[in-house]
Amino acid sequence: MIKWAKERGIIIAEFQHGVVSKMHPAYNYGEAILNSEEYRKYTPDYYLTYGEYWNNQIKIPGKTYVVGNPHFHESIKRYKDIEEEKGTILIVSQPNISDFFIKLALKISKIFPEHKIIYKLHPAEFKQREKYEELEIFNNINIVENEDIYKLIKKSEYIIGYNSTSLFEAYGFNKKIYVFDDEMSQIYIPESIGIRFKTVEELISLIKNQTLVENTKINIDYFFNRNWKKNYVKFLTKEIGLDI
Questions:
Q1: Among the four residues 39, 54, 152, 222, which has the most C-beta atoms within 10 Å?
Q2: Residue 155: other Cβ atoms inside 10 A
């Protein structure tokens, strides 16, 4: 489709739609591919990122351009009046680590019966709902599918995740973030975001002792540029050449 469009003079831009890192195979290429005119025919001319941080994570034939994440910044405004529910724990599940996170949710539920636990399924897990049925017997665990992740983040006190974009977004909401620590999360999530844990027992200890990472207070615009309207108009006029 991209090749077909380019042959007809159509400029192609791809919007960032999730987390990327320097090890993401879809957005990092060696010199041979980067310099291949043939391969360039099949890749977008532009990759429109959430913020400068993401530009530094990718190496592609096209040009990176910071626009921002409208939904993120608009959601901060939309949910500004939602009060944080003290003790509420949001677990952001992912298919490749779901077995561990189910075990984690069950253990936390028993250790902290007074805490509300929101278990947010990844879209790829919606059709595997039966896998999570054992969580439903606990009154303090609520499994959710399509509810807005930003709303869930806003009302939760603790965010537990792996290598999801939601951890960056939780940073923007100034939440207590705990990241399961392995080689993959070390690649995808910078040390400035959250505190790491390797076992369920270690996480429980961190929550009990209210252990938090020393927040480096990186400007959230580095991850999600707030001037998305201005940036997008500039992209359309300066880069694409539209008269707006």
A1: 54
A2: 17
Under the phi-then-psi rule, with left for phi > 0, alpha for psi from -120 to 50, and beta for the rest, what region is 68? left
The mean pLDDT value of the chain amounts to: 92
Q: Please, which residues have CB within 8 angstroms of residue 208's CB and are 6 or more apart in sequence?
A: none
Class level of CATH domain 84-219: alpha beta
Domain boundaries, the chain: 2-69+225-239, 84-219
Please list the alpha-helical segments (H only) found in 14-143: 31-34, 37-40, 52-55, 70-78, 98-111
% of the chain exceeding 70 in pLDDT:
97
The stretches of the chain forming alpha helices (DSSP H) are 2-7, 31-34, 37-40, 52-55, 70-78, 98-111, 149-155, 165-172, 183-188, 200-208, 228-234
Instruction: State the residue for tokens 């806003």.
Output: 154
Tokens of 119: 């278990």
Predicted TM-score of the model (pTM): 0.89
Instruction: Report the distance separating Cα 122 and Cα 97, nearest Å.
Output: 11
pLDDT digits (tens, 9 = 90+) for 188-225: 999 889 999 999 999 999 988 876 655 556 789 999 99
Kind of pairing between the strands at 141-144 and 158-161: unpaired
Token couple for 30: 């060696």
Q: Which pLDDT does position 114 carry in this prediction?
A: 93
User: What are the angstrom distances between the C-alpha of 206 and each of 60, 210, 236?
Assistant: 39, 6, 47
Separation CA 44–CA 212 (nearest Å): 41
Q: Which whole-number Å values give the CA distances from 96 to 100, 163, 188, in the listed order?
A: 9, 10, 14
Distance CA 214, CA 193 (A): 9
